[in-house]
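Dear Dr. H.,

I hope your travels went smoothly. While you were away I took the liberty of generating a structure for the chain from your last submission, since the lab meeting agenda had it listed for discussion. I wanted you to have the full record in hand beforehand rather than looking at slides cold. The sequence, exactly as received, is reproduced here:
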Amino acid sequence: MFILFGRWHFGRKAVAYRADWCTVCERRIVAQAIRSFDWFHVYLIPLIPLGHWRHWECPHCEKQPHLKGTGLLQAIIVALLFLPFFLTAILYWTMSTAGMDGDNVWMIRIFLTVMCLVMGYWAYAYQRDPSLKQRLAQIEPASETVCVNCGSALRPSKPPYCERCQMERVSLG
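The corresponding predicted structure, in token form, is as follows:
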């Protein structure tokens, strides 16, 4: 059975931009910060409000610029590897040790918990491109005096701000 679920972005609005590198497109871009009210959905029916979020997006591929292009495949593989460890760890932590060798049960509990933590860290750390730091160091900060969104002049403040479309120019850091 196919279950369609995920995160839905309502009220998307571009609020900032910066010079950046997209690891999906493999090129220099002007990334936009998108502000939206997010919901968790099942079959496109919003169920749980997640609040207002701001995330960066590549204008060419419409993905987060610092994720690898195979992020979905990596997430599926990690989930398939992580889920059995997680469920078994929960099972061992909730079951009684009466009538069992207590030392073995505790070793299994600790081993499965450590495996879940290691796999969770690996999933978080593996999504980043190892050469992204070097690529970002080569990106020159955005220095234009006109808004990349609407073309009007930026107000000279800290950070520079467009009065017409309310976008601000931010630095990469």
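Two observations you may find useful: The CA atoms of residues 5 and 54 lie 20 Å apart. The chain has three helices and six strands.

With kind regards,
E. W.
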